[in-house]
Amino acid sequence: LDYQHVQVPFEITLWIMLASLAKIGFHLYNKLPSVVPESCLLIFVGLIMGGIIYGLNDKSPPVMDSDIFFLYLLPPIVLDAGYFMPSRPFFENIGTILLYAVVGTIWNVFGIGFSLYGICQVKAFRLQDVSLLHNLLFGSLIAAVDPVAVLAVFEEIHVNEKLHILVFGESLLNDAVTVVLYKLFRSFCEMPAIKSVDVFAGVGKFFVVGLGGVLVGLTFGMTAAFTTRFTKDIRVIEPLFVFLYSYLSYLTAEMFHLSGIMAIVACAMGMKRYVEANISLKSHTTVKYFMKMWSSVSETLIFIFLGVSTIGENHEWNWPYICFTLIFCLIWRALGVLVLTFFVNRFHVNTITSKDQFIIAYGGLRGAICFSLVFLLPDFHRKKLFIAATTVVILFTVFVQGMTIRPLVDLLAVKRKRESAPTVGEQIHIRFLDHLLAGIEDISGHWGQYYWKDKLEYFNSKYLQKILLREYDQPKSSIVLLYEKLERKHAIELAEAGQLGHTPSHPSLLNNDRTVITDKKLEDTLNLDVLENIQEILARNLYRIRRTGPAYNRHTLPGETEPMGRAKEILILRHKGL
Amino acid sequence: LDYQHVQVPFEITLWIMLASLAKIGFHLYNKLPSVVPESCLLIFVGLIMGGIIYGLNDKSPPVMDSDIFFLYLLPPIVLDAGYFMPSRPFFENIGTILLYAVVGTIWNVFGIGFSLYGICQVKAFRLQDVSLLHNLLFGSLIAAVDPVAVLAVFEEIHVNEKLHILVFGESLLNDAVTVVLYKLFRSFCEMPAIKSVDVFAGVGKFFVVGLGGVLVGLTFGMTAAFTTRFTKDIRVIEPLFVFLYSYLSYLTAEMFHLSGIMAIVACAMGMKRYVEANISLKSHTTVKYFMKMWSSVSETLIFIFLGVSTIGENHEWNWPYICFTLIFCLIWRALGVLVLTFFVNRFHVNTITSKDQFIIAYGGLRGAICFSLVFLLPDFHRKKLFIAATTVVILFTVFVQGMTIRPLVDLLAVKRKRESAPTVGEQIHIRFLDHLLAGIEDISGHWGQYYWKDKLEYFNSKYLQKILLREYDQPKSSIVLLYEKLERKHAIELAEAGQLGHTPSHPSLLNNDRTVITDKKLEDTLNLDVLENIQEILARNLYRIRRTGPAYNRHTLPGETEPMGRAKEILILRHKGL
């Protein structure tokens, strides 16, 4: 027996296996996951595992290594989150999200830090040795909402898209603020004296860290898109580039002390559109599937490790400090959301309701990022107290808030996510309205969201697509891609039901010169390709609707409509489309 | 800048990126890969990289770590090889393969070892200090044909299936022999005296190592299949189990000093059938794609590292020893193939031609396994000579033999692989003949291949499928799966060509009691499910053939055949099938 030799890969594989089996186990009993979120169950498994290890070895089980967390477990989750980010609601609400992420996080950090310092002044609690700086440092790590925890809970409760993107976007974008404040306070702790110039440098640093991360991410994303232009002959390694470039962007950003999370999100969002157009359908399935799989495993491991690491002798218990931390976390977040939303609602037509505000405040879960940051603190005599307080806050938010948020959403009747995807017709109207609004903004001289979106789209089709796409001759709009996807799915369903039969195959036989009335002005605003695509879709889609629900006609029997006449029409329309 | 922090993942990612980009680079210029095998190009890139590192640092570049090779780079390639192993030709030729792998390898080891010892006795060569045991040890590592090198070259030259499986199967199955002999001679080198009991123990060990590996692999494979029974609700982690269990089987086998390669091949071949039936279509695509991708990257890295490791000061040059090693490798392999094939041909109707024999002997490429084994040798004063000789043999076989084998195959007009997959009709006949032959063997009391295959199939459908498959009610034979796959592909093609039209949708409208004449005896031999499936396929397939090539009829115009009458027929046939 030579265990030493294979120990590292063997143990890693076993941990992943345990995590996956635990996941299967929960789903075997159907009722459990609908009541308790998976994250709670996984932490629970981790607690049991930790208890067993503690009982057997009589020493604390190994703590989740912060390096392993930040270098190996976090990136897959953030990559998945960024890649599948619904970009439309994200950019529509980017202002609000940034406000919550930047101002809200700073508000929470200072709020929690200063009020905890106030608590420390009470002599009865015996906490006078915790300085203001240490309290602020602690505030900076406990204030940030955790994307992993938020994702795990919000994916199960299906609130409406806007609410989801507000909470989730905030949890992703607050990384830059957290990184800067955490590092700032940590370096202040080690400095003998703090000058005001250091404070200003800190403010400047925030922009460098955030925007730098985005820049690094976009650079790698564009390179990835460019690389996939040349993979036509070796389809098999296409998925690899998506993962390699995203990971490199994360590591590069971390190397320069920029925000790795912002980098990987920017990289994923930037490359998605071009990569999807370049790579083959199977490669794309692999990318999507593997990303989901990887992030799911990472998440599982994080929650299990979180449970395991909780057990042990790392904690110093101080009732007042821990209780007040919890209370201040809740109060300051609620206040922050209320105040910020008040300003947001003054400038928007589509306001955030008070129910939504409650869910945003209540959904501010803390998770593994806080936990890793608190272990990364330099050693000082109250570190164990901070660890205990962090653990309590995480467990409280994940267990109590995570488990009650679903009933609360039901109780408050918060607007849910619509069940079905938008129809092709709706998508066309959305796109049309975008063009219209861009035009209106252009005429009125107001440089709003739509104006910039239009400019970006123009830049994209004029320059980026030519460089990054392999087959630029046939640029496909997202609607056409969606349509193709639906058509393909429909075909597979038909094939599986064994109903694939005789199909019309000679569209060239019937030539007809019927003209389609097109609005000349519309044609000028929309670019020609989009117009063509829309025509094609309408032609096919109208036919489909008519076919699936034929009008009642007392001269024909049901199921005996005239296929020839209709086929003729379709062929004419299709011919027009080509 | 904090490079230390991210160094390990950053450098690994960069190496993989380099390997992938090199692959893309080769394929950009189309002519190159058709002349020079990719493996040669990659070694060449490695040599250049090594030269650059050597030139810049003025010290030997890092050598490929044997642990990294055996624990991380080799398993993906072997898993891929085992999972996509064409099981029919493999089991049809298992006897010949085992003969080549076991007897052939032993023949080569002792042949090369003893003749090199003879060379060492020539005083002029100044090699008297190399003992017989060291020569045999060297023989044991240099004799084994390398699966990675064989795969890389043979996948490009497309020889016929039997020839391919003979060379490739040998390279996989000789692992057990190599492991045993290598470890045996290594322990003999360190022993003061060798007793005859040790030699007998060595012979016994071979069976333990080989069969033990297979047993470990099958156990994990069955567990994997059983696990995928329960993944219906969490499709996203299904692919993970295929990888986790295979890797665990490899690590477990290595831990107990069994043959890891045999274990992972057995695991992959054992689980494939059941896992494919249990997991979703998308999971399956992901598994296949990711396996190919991973093995492709591993292979690329191995060849690049092989090139890098060649550069440096690890070599001791001794012309006679190195030249004679190369010559003996070639001669003993050729002799071995000739002698063994002579015996094989005496017992088989379907003989191995002399052209095939030449390609088998010539295709005995050495690769990274020899290279890693020679670095794993205990330190002794002639180790550098062995390293040099191994490097020369590998480079010679990969470059000279690898590059000339394609022209030679063309020149000798070796039978190529058939281009198209067997038709459904052929597959039905093959299956039918299997049943027939099993019956004949049963009656004549001859326990041949078909008898055992039939028994295994019976055991499979009686016990294994019930335990391992999720939906046992609808066991699908491989033909039905193939048919479904073809149908789905056809549907996608139609959808992509935009020809998916009106399909008949009311099979229940037309009931007809036409009877199908079935041979009662045939029904007894075939099991009922298979018969039903075959009927269904015939029904659909006959229709398809008739549809695609309608008979000429002077009363109808082309493209104007009677769809209604035919549709009626199809519906009747389909109704029968259901």
UniProtKB/TrEMBL annotation, chains A, B:
GO CC, one annotated term: basolateral plasma membrane
All copies of domain Sodium/hydrogen exchanger regulatory region, residue ranges: 529-576
Biological process terms in GO annotation: regulation of intracellular pH; sodium ion import across plasma membrane
Cation/H+ exchanger transmembrane domain span: 17-409
UniProt GO molecular function: potassium:proton antiporter activity; sodium:proton antiporter activity
Keywords per UniProt: Antiport, Cell membrane, Glycoprotein, Ion transport, Membrane, Phosphoprotein, Sodium, Sodium transport, Transmembrane, Transmembrane helix, Transport
Pfam families, per database record: Na_H_Exchanger, NEXCaM_BD
Residue stretches spanning the membrane: 12-29, 35-56, 68-85, 97-120, 132-153, 165-185, 206-227, 247-268, 289-307, 319-347, 359-380, 386-409
Membrane topology according to the record: Multi-pass membrane protein
Keyword Transmembrane in record: yes
Primary location recorded for the protein, binned into one broad class: membrane
Compartment annotation: Basolateral cell membrane
Family: Belongs to the monovalent cation:proton antiporter 1 (CPA1) transporter (TC 2.A.36) family.
Protein name: Sodium/hydrogen exchanger
Taxonomic placement: Eukaryota, Metazoa, Chordata, Craniata, Vertebrata
